[in-house]
Amino acid sequence: MDQDNGQIVARMLHHRGSTLEPGDPLAPPIVPASLYHLPGEPKAAYQYGRWTNPTWTMLEETIGVLEAAECVIFPSGMAAIAAVLCSRLRPGDRVLLPADGYYTTRSLAERYLAPMGVSIELCATAAYEGRDLAGIRLVHVETPSNPSLDICDLRALASRAKAAGALVVADNTTMTALRTIPATSSRVLSRRQRARRGS
After folding, report:
1. Percentage of the chain lying above the pLDDT 90 cut
2. Is 111 found in the same domain as 182?
3. Which of 22, 38, 67 is the last residue of a domain?
4. Torsion angle defined by CA atoms of residues 51, 55, 57 and 59, in that order, rounded to the nearest 10 degrees
5. How many domains does the chain have?
6. For 97-119, what is the HEC assignment?
7. Which three-class secondary structure state does DSSP give residue 130?
């Protein structure tokens, strides 16, 4: 990790301070609105809660500070994975998925990507280091893997993938950004999901 954890946490905690006006609450307010007042031509920053609202914006900005990269939130981790895989892969592409990773990612690929002509290749997380990436369009990795907790060197993988012309997508659900910041590696997209009680 390139930065001291204390510096990252301090930036994250004080990130909102630069935008506060006198009388604003220190904690970002939760905005549960789905509809917004839009007289005339709807050109406001917030128009309908299904695609954005002030609470989401603040969360994306805060996670962006933590990750040191732009952040887009999704309603679930699988929504994020589906958005990346389905937007980046085309017929004839090859995707590398962790054989020991989250099963639903492989299921999504087999059910939706394979029928459209995407070749799915599997590799254990611990074996990514020696895996030939020539011809691979997208490398999806979990580190630590779920459930075996095997580790992959993201910097080394990102470097090799860049040389091969592949994009790396890191599912970083298990590890916090204070220990692993995938987006700081070249050509890496990161997915993080906060576990909630009862889900």
Report:
1. 36
2. yes
3. 67
4. -120
5. 2
6. EECCCCHHHHHHHHHHHHHHCCE
7. helix
